[in-house]
Design brief:
The chain is of the alpha/beta class. It has helices at 26-38, 52-59, 72-76, 93-102, 117-129, 145-155, 178-186, 189-204, 308-311, 313-328, 337-356; strands at 17-22, 42-48, 67-69, 83-86, 106-110, 135-138, 162-172, 220-228, 243-250, 255-264, 269-276, 280-283, 294-296, 299-301, 360-361. The chain is globular and about 50 Å long.
């Protein structure tokens, strides 16, 4: 017999991370499927959702070996589970993350930590108190190949000194009224959708680099936001809008401008312009479902991605694989709780600016001054 490991003649299967998913709604079930079928170094051993019909739906999709629960605590108390992916409703993110950290489970958390910055602070403290537990927040665009390629261009200096990000997150218009109901518990358009643009800007512009900050606690100088309601008049009841603009001035001298909306008529449209002193990068300038061009009586055109699930299909799988690697290989997580907390503070400041129609400045402790 030939020894597979060169020592005792026995073949050892590579270790797999024992994974569980909390929340089996639209996103949670997608994540669970990615863990089960698209993450070679992980094994989905358990999943849970407090809503029994979601569990029943998952039973038909996930491997039979996956143990299913309606209690999140049952999963967190399971000694076999090493890591959890939390994709429950946003209101439960903070409390479940703290419970998981205390139980010694590594956590991959769907953004945001919370719609309330104050509720997010205990999560930050809990993560800092347990350096042995890895906690990563799932800002999926960071795991998209196009954004990663652009980031490599930035960090290697190929576009010179990066000084401006212009981006947009335009969700497909939904006439059903889903966003009106969703807005009531989402924290608003900046916290729910714009936070992705904020995270990309912080990442690409290297705003937390202490070498470029006179005061390492302060990353943001000021923000300003405006918005209006275009297609969903009922959003006025929750103080939200479906089209908004933002300007963020960072302490390192860089700037981010972005537009976020829920009014796109041509499909899910996300793009990003990255300005350097020597060149400009444009990520996804023309949203395309694939590389096919249609030439017909309407002209020359292409189909667009209908939702973020299609646009970032591969990125969601990459996200889980990279998180698994950080645990099994002892690497640092690419998106920390601190990153998510800083992005949330900016999103809340933008929401305040929009509602008061005034700019929001940040103090020397890095906190937004919300008058």
């Amino acid at each position: 017999m030939t020894a597979a490991n060169g020592t005792n003649g026995y073949h050892h299967e590579p270790r797999k991370l024992k994974f569980a998913v909390l929340g089996l709604g639209r996103m949670g079930l997608r994540h669970a499927s990615n863990v089960a079928y698209l993450t070679p170094r992980a094994e989905l051993v358990a999943a849970a959702d407090a809503y029994a019909p979601s569990v029943e739906k998952a039973e038909a999709v996930l491997p039979r070996s996956t143990r299913l629960f309606t209690s999140y605590d049952d999963v967190l108390n399971d000694a076999e589970v090493e890591a959890v992916l939390i994709a429950t409703e946003t209101a439960s993110h903070a409390s479940l993350t703290i419970k998981a950290i205390k139980a010694g489970k590594h956590v991959l958390l769907e953004k945001p930590i919370s719609i309330d910055v104050e509720a997010a602070r205990p999560v930050l403290k809990a993560a800092q108190a347990r350096p042995d537990v890895k906690v990563m927040v799932g800002f999926v665009r960071r795991f998209d190949e196009s954004y990663q390629y652009a980031y490599d261009q930035v960090t290697t200096g190929k576009i010179g000194k990066t000084y401006l990000i212009k981006s947009a997150s335009n969700d497909t218009y939904d006439p059903t009224g889903f966003f009106v109901q969703y807005s009531k518990a989402s924290g608003g358009i900046f916290v729910d959708a714009g936070i992705h643009d904020i995270d990309i800007a912080r990442w690409m512009l290297d705003v937390d680099n202490p070498k470029s900050l006179p005061n390492v606690k302060k990353q943001v100088t000021s923000v300003y936001a405006s918005g209006n309601i275009v297609r969903h008049p009922a959003l006025a009841e929750s103080g939200d809008v479906d089209s908004a603009l933002a300007i963020i001035n960072f302490e390192n001298g860089t700037t981010c401008n972005f537009h976020v909306s829920r009014t796109s008529m041509h499909g899910h449209d996300i793009y990003c312009e990255i300005y350097g002193t020597e060149a400009k990068l444009h990520v996804n300038p023309l949203p395309s479902l694939n590389k096919v061009k249609i030439l017909d009586g309407y002209g020359v055109r292409n189909e667009t991605t209908p939702s973020f699930l299609e646009r970032f299909k591969e990125a969601f799988a990459n996200e889980v694989n990279i998180f698994t690697d950080t645990i099994l290989d002892g690497k640092a997580v690419p998106v920390s709780v601190e990153d998510a907390f800083q992005a949330s503070q900016i999103a809340v400041a933008l929401t305040h600016s929009f509602r008061t129609q005034r700019p929001v400045f940040f103090d020397d402790e890095g906190q937004p001054i919300l008058e």
